[in-house]
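Sanity check

After download, print the first record. It should look like this:
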Amino acid sequence: MPSPIRLNKVLKELNISLDRAVEFLSSKKIEIEPRPTSKIDQNTYDLLLDEFQTDKSDKDKLEEINTKKRKELEAKLAEEIKEEELKSQQAIKKEETPIEKEELKPQQSIKKEEAPVE
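Expected structure tokens:
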């Protein structure tokens, strides 16, 4: 015989409220304490599952959609980060080239000044 199941686990699985589950079970003449920690047997679980299966399938669909959206956002963010890294690398390369040219210019001007001193 399967072990009893805590009601809060069933509520999360079926995506229903405690009040809704207790109300439904009361209509079926099954009395339980209206607490999330109450335990139910397999027959009671099966009744709840039969009644609220559509709520569970809706929840599953929403989770699937959320997972897809989350993956799309993560991919987009990863792409943006790569683009920023490429831009920063290109900017660094551009900065290195002018510095070398600037270093050459002061040396040339010093040589020109020495020539007229003779």
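If your output differs, re-run the checksum step. Summary of this record's structure: The radius of gyration is 35 Å.
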